[in-house]
Amino acid sequence: MNERQLISAIGGIARLSGSLDEAVGLIENLLTREVGSATLQLRPAGDSSQLFAGPAVMRFLESKEFPFRGMYTAPIVQGGQSRATLVAYFGAWGAPGELLRRATSATAEHLAMLLARVGRAPVAA
């Protein structure tokens, strides 16, 4: 799947999902199939805890399973206000260029539209 198809699929998942949790899980599965490994977390706006906290995140970042391991963040903005932050952890077999950054940004934008539709504030995943 090329980048345009991937971002379109992310948008489709968000449009068809009935909740943020459902959309995050389905998008995470899609990204895992396409990239190698993906973990998505929603963090409430103003959450100042460390992004690298937690044993699962540390194990992933320290693992040798994937040559590329990275973390990307994007705000989930609704009505001009940041409602949450999407944190995406990826493992890939090759250098992904800008794909993962753009996929993270697109996911956050589509989740913001879903949030406007379902009207529930995100909670930490």
**Oligomer kind:** single chain
CATH class: Alpha Beta
Q: Architecture, CATH level 2? A: 2-Layer Sandwich
Strand composition percent:
25-35%
**Sheet/helix structural class:** alpha+beta
SSE sequence, one letter per element? HHEHEEH
Side-by-side strand order of the widest sheet: 1-3-2
- Please tell me what the overall shape is: globular
Uncertain residue segments: none
CATH superfamily: GAF domain
Helicity range of the residues? 40-55%
For this structure, the CATH topology is Beta-Lactamase
DSSP summary, beta strand count: 3
Outline the biggest β-sheet: 3 strands, antiparallel
The separation of the N and C termini measures 27 Å
Number of helices: 4
Count of domain modules: 1
Structural account:
This protein is an alpha+beta fold and 125 residues long. It is built from four helices and three strands. The chain has one domain: Beta-Lactamase (2-Layer Sandwich). Strand 2 and strand 3 form a beta hairpin. The radius of gyration is 14 Å and the shape is globular. The two termini are 27 Å apart.
